Amino acid sequence: MKSRVIVDAFFEENNLVKHHIDSFNSFVENKVQKIISEVGGVTTEIKSGYRVEFGQVTVSKPVNKEADGSVKPITPMEARIRNLAYSAPMYLEIVPYVGEGEEEKKLSPLSVYMGELPVILGSDICHLKGKSPEELIEFGEDPEDPLGYFIVNGSEKAVVAQEDLIPNRILCEKVEKNNKMVDVAKVFSTRHGFRALCAVERNPDGLLNVSFPGMPSNIPLVILMRALGAQSDRDIIELISDEPSVIMQLVANLQEVREEHSINTREDALEHIGKRVAPGQPREYKLKRAETILCSYLLPHLGVEPADMRTKAKYLGRMAKNSIELYLGLRVEDDKDHYSNKRLKLAGDLMEDLFRNSFNQLVKDIKYQLERQSIRNKEPSIQAAVRSDVLTERMRHAMATGNWVGGRTGVSQLLDRTSYLATTSQLRRVVSPLSRSQPHFEARDLHATQWGKICPSETPEGPNCGLVKNLAVMCKVTTDETDDSIIDLLSSMGISREIIPIAEEVELIDSLDSEIEKELRVELAEVSETQETEEIKEIEESDVEENSEVGVTSEEIVETEKEVEYEENSEDTTTEENSEDKEIEKELE
């Protein structure tokens, strides 16, 4: 009975589809503006000079524009009956700039309608948010309906959570290539929707090679480290490890680059990369193209500026160290099926990917429309250049068909209304991206780390067994946090992003240890002093309490004084008697 009360109290605050609703709320509140701020604006090729900057975005509650031009709020039931989309209008503040250089002039900002955003039922911008059961009945809704789904063209669509490997974390594994085992350390580097697989491989000959997007073939690690700013062999070794066993494995790599490729400077390394990415081009273009590839495609989650090169070299050194340690047996393979190495893409995360892709298409169309107006000798007009259908139709098409960005299919599905259990089961479903035609025995197994997160029994039979799962009944999924907020928090705690060489790092740690030791000694001395003063105060207070008598009469004081005098006299007599006895003993002797 007590457990039932606890369960009821839990579900009063936590809806069965709360994970999807919270994720969508986070997307609307933070990520929509973040995506727009990443783009920043549009710079056209108009000769007279014309560009626009994007400001704040406003997302309203769902409305519908009627045939007569009137706009009124729309309820979910009305959207179902009239085969409409339950979506919210978005308005973007756009600031135009005319002219070039010092003659550039800022025009007044405009609030432009940019399109409609599908709204999940029960979210903060939904008309059903915070309604009582009686009010929900007036809206034509079932008070027991879990919500957490979309309505597109009158059809109820459920977005299924997608299971994926964790981004921006190094994973080590042994892979068989050409009947030989290769030790690999890889990371799915993800930044602003762009995902790049970067891997460091140690082949059977002991040579370390790196692969990443933009590079036609694998490149030796030492060459890449030189291109990132590690000038000497000592710098490369310090960036990787100070363990003798690991350093011994690096000797062959350093010799191979020095003897076969004759690369000793950063410029030589950049030219070597430029020959691969821009063959047949002038030398200056090769060097510039090589730097662009390293900035944009190599570990983009660490930054895309030239100042981030040193950080990328440090991270590559860590990946190389993990690969060598895996070969030496100092490290075990990472378990890809461990749930700490998994992440779930919920409704908000999937909508973020879709909105980023759709908004980028809208930005390209805005630039094309502005330049087209200029070619036709028309004055550029933002209101005419922003075609809201570009963003709206792309998002609605993906929601209606389930074909998502990145080639994923079946992301949105028609809501199963067979029963209440079928509906809630579909809204709490988790799908793995692995192919159904392959065995994937380990991925299909019930991993011990799924305890409390994934239901151990609810999975279909056949090829989807173990790949289509459901969340446990009381499982809660947290929303992700942006990297910038975590970096700001660490910076406020005094942690620096600067990469310090190992030798300087040791000196810095020693100096910090000595300073900390001095501070501890001072604190201990202060503590001991305070303890001594407190003990002295306690002793004095106890003496005062013993000598002080409260509510004593004058007669009692006189009696106590007499007793004290009598005790003193008795003590004097006893001392005199003792002295007389000693004199008698001396005479007898």
TrEMBL record:
DNA-dependent RNA polymerase (RNAP) catalyzes the transcription of DNA into RNA using the four ribonucleoside triphosphates as substrates. The Rpo2 subunit (Rpo2N and Rpo2C in this organism) is implicated in DNA promoter recognition and in nucleotide binding. Residues 15-392 form the RNA polymerase beta subunit protrusion domain. Residues 168-345, 413-477 form the RNA polymerase Rpb2 domain. The keyword Cell inner membrane does not apply. Its main location: cytoplasm. It catalyses: RNA(n) + a ribonucleoside 5'-triphosphate = RNA(n+1) + diphosphate. It is found in: Cytoplasm. Part of the RNA polymerase complex. It comes from the Archaea. Pfam families: RNA_pol_Rpb2_1, RNA_pol_Rpb2_2, RNA_pol_Rpb2_3. This is DNA-directed RNA polymerase. The keyword Zinc-finger does not apply. Belongs to the RNA polymerase beta chain family. Residues 529-548, 556-580 have a biased composition (Acidic residues). InterPro entries: DNA-dir_RNA_pol_su2, RNA_pol_bsu_protrusion, RNA_pol_Rpb2_2, RNA_pol_Rpb2_2_sf, RNA_pol_Rpb2_3. GO terms for molecular function: DNA binding; DNA-directed RNA polymerase activity; ribonucleoside binding. It comes from Methanococcus voltae. Residues 527-589 are annotated as: Disordered. Keywords: DNA-binding, DNA-directed RNA polymerase, Nucleotidyltransferase, Transcription, Transferase. One of its GO terms (biological process) is DNA-templated transcription. It is an enzyme of class 2 (transferase). Gene3D superfamilies: 3.90.1100.10, RNA polymerase Rpb2, domain 2 (3.90.1110.10). Its EC number is 2.7.7.6. GO terms for cellular component: cytoplasm; DNA-directed RNA polymerase complex.
